[in-house]
Amino acid sequence: MTGAAVYLLLGLSLLLAIVLPQVTQRIALSPPMVLVAVGMLIGLLPLPDGVSLDPEANRTVVTHVTEFTVLVSLMGVGLAIERTLDLRSWRSWRTWSPVWRLLVVTMPLTILGVAVLGWWVAGLAPAVALLLGAVLAPTDPVLASDVQVGEPLTEDIDEREDREAPTEDDDIRFSLTAEAGLNDGLAFPFVHLALLLLAGGFTVLDVGTWIGWYVVGKIVLGVAVGIATGWMLGRQAFHSRSDKLRLADHGEPLLALAALLAAYGAAELVGGYGFLAVFACAMRLRASERGHSYQRAMHGVVERLERLMTLMVLLVLGMAMTRGLFDHLDWRGVLVALALVLVVRPLAGYTALSVLARDEDRDGGLDRGERVAVAFFGVRGVGSLFYLAYATSHEHVPDEPWLWSTVAFTVIASVLLHGVTATPAMARLDERRGTRVS
Fold this sequence. Notes:
By secondary structure, the protein is mainly alpha-helical. It has a single domain (about 5-435), classed as Na+/H+ antiporter like fold (Up-down Bundle). It has 18 helices and no strands.
């Protein structure tokens, strides 16, 4: 395959990515499904000599590409979330009830469930099984647009258009989007625990250190840095005394990208979780002037960059599927993947949302059908690929080829199952919600 052919294929693929969201809007077929299929077809073509799609041979590239893709998606969802979180208001915290339940209950249960399957069914060492659970625990609604919130609502939106559009801040979309924004960073403590176990020398006496630093310290630092960065940049962009520094008046949307890089870099420098910092920064930046049209401009830039990065990852993933990525996949990997998507996540999610459930008539309250939807649509995606690449780059991991095949198959299975069911399920729930409100 010549360089010209590569450019042609990339151009056609990008055109496809632009058209697909409009074409597949009303049918049970998601753009990620089509992009993976296109990647598989491209993978059947001959590649230039020396080009390898083996993730083990390209750990650094996979780590950085997936890392940046996750960062862009975190900034996007943070800017899009309408619901505020006032840290001083208990009432505000309660409107986020489904999110806290998904993070504090569902995520640990999911990690535990997958780890048990990895150890008991797949015969993995306990540390490797724990790593598999931590890698597959984060959700990624970026790969299922019907279950995430849309662009930020601002004062310049036409009132007629706003009335006719479905509510973007409904509890289902909000819960899934906010969960993905926060759990991408909260998976890191368990990834680090698995790496510490693999490195050896980790004893019961070290559990306190792990909890104090990896669970509490790094989370607090990440969130604090993100809030501080978002506050400073938001104050400059919207309320600066200097007209030249008040970027919102000039409409320069690249501030979102600058905020992303600054928050992530600062958090990582002080030892905090950069993913949490980016999400917290985006939410704080959004809160600086919630109704300003500049919010939509920033979100638009991030959304386009996110689409481009996701396109590249999905195309390469599809190509790798026909280039040996599934060579080490066996019945154990298939069983773990399907059990996660169809049993572990739905059961853990529904349990967390149903026990002492919040009144469904209040913000943060879900009825039975909505709880089922939130529990089921825990899409696995780019984050899982990043965590596995990160772990294998920092420590020797036994059964690495099998892990890559299994994690990739889980992502594909999630894209297919959730992609097919998302459109009709969400349309039905939107219709029922509209009937109930009227």
